[in-house]
């Protein structure tokens, strides 16, 4: 699947991923009202509003972008109806030929980790039949439990030619409480990065490994170091826009070929219509506002890469 991601990035010229992380307060009132008129102010109504919101954004942006990243917690909060909306979103994005990164941040061991891996990336056996439950192309994984937590995911990735993005240096302010701690004079995130590179050697695509890393845009200098430690691992970069990251901060996350990283923006795109810069579109045309935000983000990052 890393080969498809690389191909789609080359085709679109867009080193970005749209985070489909819908909160109800991101969803325009007219979308909510329509959903509630059909299902009531229920979990089912909320899930329908989320699905219709996602569908409009995907319809207005899929030709510009290589990938999307739905964050499962935003769906789980609405229970089973929310998970159904998650699955509908994944399937619809794949119909549009988008790469789907399931932002699930799982981290467990043994059979539990294997079950997570099968559920999100693999196939589950039911009697004489096998089924593909959620069917994302990539998943995010927390490596804090070590290889016991990651290896079951790697096994499924090898079987299904899918991929992982492993948390290495996250964008949140308190990430350094653990990730920056020194071990023999080196920060923990560097040691995790080395392990990601080693895992990745077992899962190479044509140009890059199936095993990538998550490194926050809010720490560009650390990104520069980690890029050298993991030369063949794609880096998923959260923290653009709303968390402060800008195109000029991100050039060191990329290799000289202009590949090797993909930058995520969530509310900066899906809730763009709420921003002053895109207010002219109004609530009714929120999808067009998202498209304009994608175009602006691509121009920002591509321009920075060309200028380096």
Looking at CATH, the homologous superfamily is Aldolase class I
* Coarse shape: globular
CATH classification class:
Alpha Beta
- Helix and strand sequence: HEHHEHHEHEEEHEHEEHEHEEHH
Instruction: Find the count of extended strands (DSSP E, 2+ residues).
Output: 12
Largest sheet: 8 strands, parallel, barrel
Strand order, biggest sheet? 1-2-3-6-7-10-11-12
Task: Report mean pLDDT, rounded to a whole number.
Answer: 94
Which stretches of 5+ consecutive residues score pLDDT under 50? none
Q: Helical segment tally?
A: 12
Approximately how much beta-strand content do the residues carry? 15-25%
CATH architecture: Alpha-Beta Barrel
Q: Distance between termini?
A: 29 Å
Helix fraction by DSSP (H/I, runs of at least 4) = 40-55%
Provide the gyration radius in Å: 19 Å
At the fold tier of CATH, the topology name is: TIM Barrel
Please, how many domains?
1
- Look at the helices and sheets and give the structural class: alpha/beta
